[in-house]
Each structure stands twice: as structure tokens, then as C-alpha cells.
Amino acid sequence: MFFNNNSTYPIGLDISDLSLKFVQLNKIRNKITIQAMGKTSLPAGLIEGGEIKNKEGVAKKIKKLIANPQFGKISSGEIISCLPETKTFIKLIEVERTPNPMREIISNEIEKHIPMPINEMYYDWQIIKTPDSKQSVLIGAAPQNIVSQYANLLKEAKYSIVALEIEPISICRSLLAEEALKFEGAFEKNYGIIDIGAKRTSMIIYSKNTILFTVSMPISGEEATNRIARTLKIEASQAEKAKIVCGFDERKADGIIKNILSDMAHELIKKMRETIEFYNAHFSGRGPINEILLCGGGANIKKLDEIISKELSIPAKPGNALINLSEINGKFSDILKEKHILEIDLNKESKNKKNKLLSITQDASLTFSTAIGLALRGIFIEEI
Known about the structure:
This protein is α+β, with helices and mostly antiparallel strands. The protein is built from ten helices and 18 strands. β2 (19-28) and β3 (31-41) form a beta hairpin.
């Protein structure tokens, strides 16, 4: 395999149950730019719940995707990829300062916090500086069998593995200016980051330059689509368009889609409130959550951010996946802008007898958050 030598930074590859996305970055002087990127869907059943069921099928999809970018050309045979959030663990813990080696201290503590035997996991940690008698340590862990599945997948696809990373770390690196190596501001803000994916939603609590913990939530974009399809007796493809185009806008489709989605919004907000209450109870010294950022495929559901802001009394908005890059969306409009058109009679009993044509142009950059964060690791690590 031959590569252009404009850049040798690794490819960031986001592998999920229903899609693949990749980004390769380049750095010239102080500017980080996108060299190549692309995405593709995966047929259901190749990956289920983060577990790879068809290694050869997924490997073929990876090779085809990276060989045919939607933008640019790749110049590396190295990959940084992520492990599924639902199968991994990340948490900030406190340990007593002792003269014992840190590995020994962590091995004695980790099973108190991670629900799996230590001999069945791979784990790592990072010491977060603290002035008192205790040390704050960020620990991450993943089951050995899951790590092996993803390592074997990338070997099957004939790529060299630089790292397999826990997904919330990549998301924070993409969305937060504080994660940039040369960030010059004060590390004062506390964030709740909501990643709304096709199969699951997770909430990351990030405080003063470190992840504290993550929470998985049994809410997904796919379930929202299925509820619309079941209620209105329409095809899933039409239901997906209805979800995106109408969202929580009561002016569209006579508010029918808003009403269907409301139950799921209440479930999401309930889980978010419980998570924030846990944070306030256990990390009160860090101050309140200042802002909620949305990412993933569900981040742009119309007016979802407004509902979250109102219900939780915390400012909420879609994140900016390009915040640590020297790029603007316009350069990649064919990839990062998606136009959705809906033409369907959503309410046959309505006085509006004719079908309406509804459309929306959506910024899809947040679906690349994980891939961008993975690619940034390759650049940031080199500069440390």
C-alpha cells in the first residue's frame, strides 16, 4: 500500500454498531487541518452492542471506506480507534498517598470501582494533581475480550494499531478547547456532555480538565425513530426524516412528532437530572455544572437543546467538533451538511389534507466528534 507523504499522522476511526467514520488530520506550523475523512453505514448484525459478530464483514467495510474518502486522500496505514462506551469504564477516584508503587495501589483499588475481575480487564490510569493528602487518579478499563475483538478486526483490515481508546476521552478532546495542548484559559468550567447515538446515549461529566465519570442511558436515536414509525405506521426511513425535520418544533406536522418524542425527552432529562444530582452530592467542591454540550447523531434534533436548558436550568447547546481545528464547516459542506426532505401526510385527520414538503439542512459535524478526537490524539501525543 502506497501513501502520499504530506502527512503521517494516524487515522482516527470511529467504529459503532451501525456506522464507520474516519478522519485523518495534518498539522502545518500551528494549524491543524482535515486531510481526509469519510463515513459509511454498517448493515445491522455485523456489530451488536459493541461486540463484533462478523469480523471479516466489518474489515471489508473499513478497507473500502478508507480507500475511498469522501474528502482528501489518506497518507497513513496507522489507526487510532475507540472501544465501545457501553463496554468500557472511566472514573476519577481518590487514593491515599503512600510510598507504595502506584500500580500496586491502583490494582488494590480498581475492583472497588470497576464491575469486573482485574484478571479479565486491561486498565490504565492518569494522576490528576491534588494538593491534599489524597491523590485523584483517573482510571480507565476495558474487558480483555473486547480489546482483542477490536485489535483482531483492525489486523484483519491490514492496518497498524497505534492505540485503542475509551470513547469519552476522544469526545472531550474533540469538543472542548480545554483539551488543546496550548490552551491558555483557566480550567474553571464544568460540563455535562450528552452523546446521543443510534444505539445508545451516554453522559460524560467533565470538570476542570478531567473526566470524572460517565453514565450510559438506555435511550437511542434508533428507538426514537422506531416510536415514530410504530405510532404513525410509516416506514423507518420516513420516520427518521420526520424526527430530524420536525424534532420538537410544535409548528411542524401539527406538533405530532414533538408529542411522540416528548416521552423520550422526559426519560433523557430524568437520567440527566439524576446524574447531575450524583455529581452535586459527590463532587460539590468543584462547583455546579456550567454548560451541557450535545454531540452524536441526535445532537441536532430540533429544539432538544432548548428543552434541556429549560428543564435543567443549565445552558445547553450542540457542541463544536471543529473547535480544536483550523477549519470551517463550509470546506466540507458535501460531507458535513445533510439536507433532509420530508413529504408525508402525518395526520390524515388534520384540516391540512395535502401533503406538505418539509426540509431541513443539518450540520453533521457532530457525528464525527469521536473520529476527530481520535485523530487529534495522534497529533497531541507527538507534541507532548
